[in-house]
Amino acid sequence: MANTNSTAGEGASQSQDSTKSFIASAQEAIGDAVDATVEAVKEHPVAAAAIAAGAAAAVGGAVYAATQLGGDKPTTSKK
């Protein structure tokens, strides 16, 4: 029975090593993407600003549309 526990421990250790390796490679990829983005913004600041404004408008429009999908709402104004 002790041999089974030893084998399970080795499997867990290998799994942890694999997870750490995956996390390290993911962090490196994210760092590379951030560096590339910073360089692109430095080279084309107007285009980057236009993209950011467009993304903000799209998010704002989506939020507005989502709030309007609630259907008929009772009016609170009295005439």
Low-confidence stretches: none
Structural class: mainly alpha
Order of helices and strands: HH
* Largest pleated sheet: none
Principal-axis shape: flat
Work out the strand percent.
under 5%
Overall residue-averaged pLDDT value: 83
Please provide the count of β strands: 0
Report the span from N to C terminus. 83 Å
Q: What is the count of helical runs?
A: 2
Measured on Cα atoms, how large is the radius of gyration? Answer: 26 Å
Helical content band = over 70%
Summarize the structure.
It is built from two helices and no strands. With 79 residues, it is mostly helical.
How would you portray this structure in words?
This protein has 79 residues and is an all-alpha fold. 84% of the residues lie in helices and 0% in strands. It is built from two helices and no strands. Helix 1 crosses helix 2 (45-68). The longest helix is centred in the first third of the chain and has 42 residues, at 2-43. The protein is flat and about 75 Å long. The mean pLDDT is 83.
